Amino acid sequence: MLDLTQYFDKKLKVNEKDIIVVGCSYGPDSMALLHQLVTYRKKVPFKIVCAHVNHQIRKESNEEEKKLEEYCKDNQVYFELLRIEKYGDDNFHHSAHGIRYHFFQEVIKKYQAQYLMTAHHGDDLIETILMRLVRGSSIKGYSGFEEIVEYPTYKIVRPFIYYTKEDLISYDLSNRVPYAIDSSNAKRVYTRNRYRMELLPFLKEEDKNVHEKFLKFSLLLKECDYFIEKQSKKCLKNVFQNQCLDIIKYKELDEFLQKRVIFLILEEIYQNDLNIISTRHVNLLSDLIYSKKANARIYLPNHVMAIKSYHQLIIEKEEKELLESYDVQLFDYLKLPNGKNLQIVLSCDSNGNDICRLNSSDISLPLYVRTRKMGDKILLRNSGHKKLKDIFIDSKIPSRYRDNWPVLVDSKGEVLWLPGLKKSKKARKINEECDIIIKYY
C-alpha cells in the first residue's frame, strides 16, 4: 500500500518549520503526492505550496487549473500558478521542462522552501533509462534521474521512485483523490509516449516488479559512476586547465578514462543543458584529438567550439574573430589589442625574444606595429629570409592567433621583429651598440 509516512518521518525528517513545494499538474501522479502531503500534515503541521504550470496546449487545461486551485483552497495549500503564453522553440517537451523548473525555482525562492517534490515514479525511471540507452549518454545519464538531489538551499525529492503508475492510480481511486488524464499522453508523436505505450507493457508482462530491477540497476550505475568520477577528476586536473586540454598527457590515459574526461569537460561547460550532449559529441571530440591535422576545429551545440592546435585542444564559447587588423605608429608605449604591451625602455638585462635592440642608423624611422600581411618575410641572422607563416608553424602558434600577432616594421615596411618569437638580422645583440630597446610583455 502506498504510504509515505515512514519516508517523511525517517528519511526526510520533515518538521513543522519545513516548507515543501510540490510540482502538481492535476494528473494522477502529482495529485497522489499532494494528497499524501496533505494527509501527513495532520501529523506534522508544515507548510505546503502547490506550484502549477498551465501549458495552455489542451482545451481542458483551464478547467484543470480551476479544479486544482479549489482543491488547494479546500485543503489550506498555497497555490502558485504560471500560465505559459509562448514556447521558445519547436521542441515542446524540452522547452516546457526548462520553463517549468525555472518557475519552481522562483517559487522555492519566494517561500524559502526546503524541498521541491515531484511525482516521478518507477515507470518514469524505466522510460528515462531506456530512452538514454537508445540515444546514448554517460554512465550517470544511463542511471536515469536521482531520488534526491541536493542544492545549496533546498532538495529535489522524488519519493514515488519506488512505486509504479498503477500504484498511484489505485491510491487515488481508493482515497477518492480527484485528477485528470492528460490526453496528450496518448499521442505517439512524443518519444516518451511511444516507450510508455509499447515497451513498458512488454517489460511488465515479463515481470510485474520490473521497476524494482531498474531501480537496482540505476543505483548500481550511480555507485560505479561515483568511483569512476573520483578517478576521472584526478586525471582531469592533470590534463585540462584553463579550458585547454594537453593532448600528449590525454593520450597517455586509458581509453575509458579518456572518454570520461571528455564527459567531465562537457558537464562543466553545459551544466544544466547536459541533456543535449550525447556520445556522438564525445566521439567527435575524440576524433578531433586523434586527427592528423595540426590545426582543426569542430562546432558543438549552443555555440561551443573545440579548437585543436598542435598538442592542445581549447574548448570555449564561440565568439567573433578576436581582433581586427591594425597598423599603428610606436612611440614610447603601446597597449596591444591582444592584451600585451610594447614599451621603449632605457635598459634591459635580458636578450630573449621578448626584447628587441635596434640602432636607428640601420633602419628607417618611425617604427610601426601592425598585423601580418600576405607574403611577409623576415631576414634572419644566419638563415636568410623566412616567411612569418613558417615561423608561426615552427613555433606551434594556434592559427586563430596568427592574424592578430604584432609585427614590428620600419617606415619602409621591413619586418624587424615578431615579438616573442623571432628578431631580424638588424636586431642588435646585448653587447652591441644600440639606441632603441623595446620590451614585449
Q: Can you give a write-up of this model?
A:
- With 441 residues, this protein is α+β, with helices and mostly antiparallel strands.
- It folds into 3 domains: 5-211, Rossmann fold; 242-317, Uridine Diphospho-n-acetylenolpyruvylglucosamine Reductase, domain 3, CATH 3.30.465; 327-440, Phenylalanyl-trna Synthetase, Chain B, domain 3 (Phenylalanyl-tRNA Synthetase, Chain B, domain 3, 3-Layer(bba) Sandwich).
- The protein contains 14 helices and 22 strands.
- It has helices at residues 5-12, 28-40, 61-74, 92-111, 122-135, 139-142, 165-174, 191-206, 210-239, 247-251, 255-270, 279-289, 388-394, 399-402; strands at residues 19-23, 47-54, 78-83, 115-117, 148-150, 155-157, 240-241, 244-246, 295-300, 304-309, 312-317, 327-329, 333-335, 341-345, 355-358, 368-370, 377-380, 384-387, 407-409, 415-418, 422-423, 436-440.
- The strands form 5 sheets. The protein has a 6-stranded mixed beta sheet with strand order 3-2-1-4-6-5, with helices on both faces. Strands 7-8-11-10-9 form a 5-stranded antiparallel beta sheet.
- Helix 5 (122-135) crosses helix 8, helix 5 (122-135) packs across helix 9 and helix 9 (210-239) packs across helix 11 (255-270).
- The model has no long low-confidence stretch (mean pLDDT 90).
